[in-house]
Design a protein that fits this description.
There is one protein chain. With about 350 residues, the protein is an alpha+beta fold. Helix content is about 35%, strand content about 25%. The chain has 7 helices and 13 strands. Strand 3 (about 55-70) and strand 4 form a beta hairpin. The chain is elongated.
């Protein structure tokens, strides 16, 4: 979905005789959205698709709930409160206006895409019991709702460095628990465009769409305190005071080290597995060679080899299997350059020709 906005994207104004009319319609909101990036974005995590809205924010509310399990005990005035968790909920109301029929149509396209983001991913579309991924969403409301971990605090001027962009990948991870869409058709006259065209029937395009969204974030990093210090000082808006700079620098350095150790650990574990696999193969090869040396080395080795050749032609399957395994060991040992005291391949050929 395009992140740029153009009120004439789908329909260029024309006169009744079909000729293009002068482009006189100007909407300053396009500038705010395209140049200033004042947009709201949603990214569907399973598919990687995103959608942007140029809208008026009528309300934006956050609520935090610390949940405790009270236990009433005999003789105590107050219960014992056992902490459970802290949850965060976001409520966002926006109005998506349309200055033209083209923009009204595009708004329907964008809202439709957001609505489809609320459904899961399937392996087979027609079978409801084969869900592969839940509809996780990244929602970004400029700098007020985003993944705050992207901010850096090494700038000389914290206030100047405090900026955001419209990248949907920087949105806050979570789930949309409810989405209500009001097409505002009964508010007053003129609330919708009647689609023009001689063949057009039964079609209207709302001039204003109102969206009410309830969003529950999923914390991707630990939020809280350790030894009297904040674990993530950038939570939730990325805004910090200057006195925290040194501590934040330590936090970022520590985080980078942890992530680096994690990456190094993965690489090291992979190298260990490779070395272990190679060692297993080496031991297996050595075992085969040792078996061949034990059976065929020495004064009677060639005689045992000829006997195994004859056994390999035997009708007794068990004897034949053992003999063939021993012969394979001999050939493998010779291929690795091991000297068994005789030419394995030549002896096998002579014995085989002699028996046949």
């Amino acid at each position: 979905m395009s992140k740029t906005f153009n009120i004439r994207r789908y329909k260029i104004p024309t006169s009744p005789n079909g000729k293009q009319m002068p482009d006189t319609l100007v909407d300053g909101s396009d500038y705010l959205a395209n140049q200033k990036q004042l947009v709201i974005s949603f990214k569907h995590v399973p598919s990687g698709k995103d959608v942007f809205f140029k809208a008026f924010i009528t309300s934006f509310n956050e609520s935090y709930s610390s949940n405790f399990n009270p236990t009433v005990t005999f003789g105590r005035t107050d219960p014992i409160y056992q902490y459970s968790n802290t949850t965060r909920n976001i409520s966002l109301s926006i109005q998506v206006p349309a200055a033209s029929q083209s923009e009204a149509y595009e708004n329907l396209v964008r809202v439709s895409k957001l609505e489809k983001f609320l459904y899961p991913s399937y392996t087979t579309p027609d079978v409801a019991n084969t869900i592969t991924q839940a509809p996780l969403i990244r929602m970004k409301v400029m700098n007020l709702l985003q993944d705050s971990r992207g901010y850096r605090t090494d700038a000389e001027d914290l206030f100047t460095a405090y900026i955001s962009d419209s990248d949907p990948d920087k949105g806050l991870l979570g789930v949309i628990t409810s989405l209500a869409v009001d097409h505002n058709l009964g508010v007053e006259e003129g609330t919708a465009f009647f689609k023009e065209g001689n063949q057009t029937k039964n079609t209207i395009l709302p001039k204003l769409l109102s969206l009410q969204i309830n969003f529950s974030p999923i914390h991707e990093e630990t939020i809280g305190w350790r030894d009297g210090e904040e674990i993530n000082s950038l939570f939730p808006y990325g805004a910090v005071e200057d006195e925290q700079r040194d501590h934040l620098s330590y936090q970022q350095t520590h985080l980078d080290k942890v992530r680096s150790r994690g990456t190094e650990g993965i690489i090291e574990a992979r190298e260990v597995r490779i070395r272990q696999d190679e060692e297993k193969k080496r031991r297996a090869r050595q075992q085969v060679v040792d078996n061949a040396k034990a059976r065929y080395s020495g004064f009677l080795g060639e005689m045992r080899f000829k006997k195994d050749v004859r056994r390999s032609q035997s009708s007794n399957e068990n004897v034949s299997d053992v003999a063939k395994s021993n012969l394979n060991s001999a050939f493998y040992a010779e291929a690795l350059g091991e000297d068994l005291g005789f030419d394995v391949e030549a002896t096998f050929a002579d014995q085989f020709i002699g028996e046949s």
